[in-house]
Specification:
With about 350 residues, the protein is an alpha/beta fold. It has helices at about 1-30, 35-40, 55-70, 90-100, 130-140, 140-150, 180, 190-200, 215-220, 230-235, 260-265, 270-300, 315-320, 320-330, 330-340, and strands spanning about 45-50, 75-80, 105-110, 155-160, 165-170, 185-190, 205, 225, 245-250, 255-260, 305-310. About 50% of the residues lie in helices and about 20% in strands. Helix 3 (about 55-70) links the parallel strand 1 (about 45-50) and strand 2. Helix 3 runs antiparallel to helix 12. The termini are far apart. InterPro entries: DctP_fam (IPR018389), TRAP_DctP (IPR004682), TRAP_DctP_sf (IPR038404). It comes from Paramaledivibacter caminithermalis (strain DSM 15212 / CIP 107654 / DViRD3) (Clostridium caminithermale).
Length: about 350
């Protein structure tokens, strides 16, 4: 009996030692591989850059995108929004997105034309009847082709944001016809197509830094400029140029742009979530833009400014038709499709 008890006690001790060694070995392996544990819990963090400040419609859209992505991935993916140009100017950020240093950015399509030339078609003057027409184009198959067309440059467009329509304003008179524009000195961006647009309408284009426009109108160096409702208000240009003509000559849509390097690292399920979240966030941004435009117009009218709405844009469209040959010669079929979209 004593011998049996001795054997039993020895077995219990051996089993206990083996169990302890196994637990200790597992604990040692875990402590030696903390990265493995952190991979299971730490979220993927993506950075999204925007040059506009908090409260601006595009930044509101960016933050809605971030919220939707985090919610729908149960926190596995977080999008950090950097407004106010914290990560650099638009051109610098696009270059970093291309090489994966920054994951996402909100950008105008203007600087993207060097990567996809046919994007310039979307900026042709008077190509859209109105905002609804533009988004019927952009939210359809053509718009999707444009978004995907940046893949050769290692980037991917996710959705379309609204950036309003640019119209003329000046300090001299109401503009109701092309004839009314003749001889006016109009500030334009340093862009060949904008220079040609203003020339075609009979005015004198004057390239100038945006920050100089207020004083230039005030002192008579130029007669006016062109921009959307919100900018006309926030820059205080309405104070020195009281005539605003809603001709909506140019609409330049914007997008959330993503690095293809970042996108390709995600699972198909997460890629789908990212794309759907961006498109839903774009609808929020468009609503915010519409609110900003309405508020700006209300304040400008209340200030006593003269707002002129064209009865027809036909005369203006005819005057700039040569620009379609110059900038859209290789895309005539595409231009026809856009114009005929109902």
């Amino acid at each position: 009996m004593k011998r049996f008890l001795s054997i039993f006690v020895a077995l219990v001790l051996v089993i206990g030692m083996l169990s302890g060694c196994g637990a200790k070995q597992e604990e040692t392996q875990t402590s030696q591989n903390p990265a493995k544990e952190s991979e299971k819990t730490e979220p993927i963090v993506l950075r999204l850059a925007d040059v506009h400040n908090d409260g601006y419609p595009t930044v509101i859209g960016d933050r809605e995108f971030a919220r939707l992505v985090e919610e729908r991935t149960d926190g596995r993916i977080k999008v950090e929004v950097y407004p106010g140009g914290q990560l650099g100017d638009e051109k610098t950020v696009i270059e970093q997105v291309q090489f994966g240093a920054i994951d996402l950015t909100r950008t105008s399509i203007s600087p993207l034309t060097e990567f996809q030339k046919k994007l310039s078609v979307l900026m042709l003057p008077y190509i859209y009847r109105d905002k609804e027409h533009m988004f019927k184009v952009l939210d359809g198959p053509m718009g999707e082709e444009f978004l995907n067309g940046l893949s050769e440059a290692n980037m991917l467009g996710l959705c379309w944001y609204d950036a309003g329509a640019r119209s003329f304003y000046n300090s001299k008179k109401e503009i109701k016809t092309v004839e009314d524009l003749k001889g006016l000195k109009i500030r334009v961006q340093k862009s060949e197509i904008m220079l040609d647009l203003v020339k075609a309408l009979g005015a004198s284009p004057t390239p100038m830094a945006f920050s100089e426009v207020y004083s230039a109108i005030q002192t008579g160096v130029i007669d006016g400029a062109e921009n959307n409702w919100a900018s006309y208000l926030t820059t205080s240009h309405y104070e020195v140029a009281k005539y605003y003509t809603v001709d909506e000559h140019t609409r330049v849509p914007e997008m959330i742009l993503m690095s293809k390097m970042t996108f390709d690292k995600l699972s198909p399920e997460d890629q789908k979530i990212i794309k759907e979240a961006a498109k839903e966030a774009a609808l929020v941004e468009r609503e915010e833009w519409a609110k900003a435009e309405a508020e700006a117009e209300e304040k400008i009218v209340a200030n006593g400014n003269i707002v002129t709405r064209l009865e027809s844009k036909d005369e203006f469209q005819k005057a700039v038709s040569s620009l379609y040959d110059k900038y859209g010669a290789d895309y005539k079929d595409l231009i026809e499709k856009i114009i005929n979209t109902k």
